[in-house]
Specification:
Blueprint: H1 7-29, E1 52-56, H2 61-73, E2 78-83, E3 86-92, H3 96-104
Antiparallel strand pairs: 1-3, 2-3
Length: about 110
């Protein structure tokens, strides 16, 4: 095998290139900024839940879960939201009237 003066330059250039790529990858990996891990949910005002509207305002989380389960049993998709005003049972607006009627009815 015959070595030329160019072959002595190629090795270090490849090594510097690999180290440069590793540096860029590590900077990207450990940089501050957007995370792929979801942040913990924050409580908001009752009107900050987009398409969802509040249909019940139970006094505690257990009562709210019982109301939510009752709505689910009647095929109304419901969710619990811990708002700044306390727990709320939320449904889509198209189901709100039916959900309020169910919540108002005694068991």
């Amino acid at each position: 095998m015959q070595f030329t003066s160019a072959s002595f330059l190629v090795g270090p250039l490849i090594a510097f290139g690999v180290v440069g790529i590793l540096v860029l990858l590590l900077r990207w990996t450990f940089s501050r900024g957007g995370s792929l891990v979801a942040r913990p949910a924050k409580s908001g005002r009752v009107d900050e839940y987009g398409l969802l509207v509040s249909v019940a305002a139970p006094t505690n989380y257990i009562e709210a879960e019982m109301v939510r389960q009752r709505l689910e049993d009647h095929q109304i998709r419901a969710t619990l939201a811990q708002t700044l005003a306390g727990p709320r049972v939320m449904v889509f607006e198209r189901d709100a009237e039916r959900a309020r009627a169910l919540v108002a009815k005694p068991h």
